[in-house]
Amino acid sequence: MNIAFYLAAAIAIVATLQVIVQTNAVHALLYMILSLLSVAVIFYTLGAPFVAALEVIIYAGAIMVLFIFVVMMLNLGPQSSEQERSWMNLSTWIVPSIMALILIAELVFVLTQGASGTTGAKVIEPQQISLALFGPYLLGVELASILLLAGLVGAYHLGRGRDQRIERNV
Amino acid sequence: MNVATVPMNVGLILAGVLFLFGVIGIIVRRNIFFILLSIEIMLNAAGLAFVVAGSHWGQPDGQVMFIFILSMAAAEVSVGLALVLQLYNHYKSLDVDEISKMSG
Q1: What is the ipTM of this complex?
Q2: What is the mean pLDDT of chain A?
Q3: What is the pLDDT of residue A170?
Q4: What residues does B31 pair with on adjacent strands?
Q5: For residues B32 and A56, what is the distance between their CA atoms, to the nearest angstrom?
Q6: Do A46 and B25 touch (CB under 8 A)?
Q7: pTM (two decimals)
């Protein structure tokens, strides 16, 4: 299981790096799906099979499909990939990358100070998660439902066609 | 089912590295579509940190937080992508610098 964790971690890092350097939106999305699937494997090895399934079903399944739908609706041609490539010169990359490298170095330094525990205390069954979710976290569930309703209404309002709005104004 | 017993540092550093990739993506990219994708990377990395910590303590709370992050990401991305479609209809471009002219 440890080997599976480290392999999935390496794949997650490489795939996520590919997401932010790709010029083609569809290629970036496919790398993003690979990254999410490897994070799902990490969740499974850490003894969290329920959220591993949720990661595959909701993140890689639903949210990424939404992104792919939008890419298809935008119908970006090869010239958008060319434009992305022209925006991606070294001078835009160098400063953020150096700052991020410094932050990663600091993070590694801080996290390697002192003793650290290990993961994998035990496998957490879906039953325990449900009992926590609908027990002490019930208020959070209600707030999440309100948030999802707001997202639904907002997406419907923004996604309406332009013709309907003109009719309304007239 | 046996469980990976890696040091918790490794999992948290992995979450931090993925989060910083998202930060670099937001700073560097000018395409609003890739900026939304970078936000997804950052939310996913935050959820990974919660699950790693929950795995250390053997408690379900970390996974409960991950479920909340997941629902928030779903709501955010639906509104964000609807905005992307609207902006593309108005400006015929996904460049965020074009959109900054909106203030005038």
Answers
A1: 0.90
A2: 87
A3: 44
A4: B95
A5: 25
A6: no
A7: 0.89
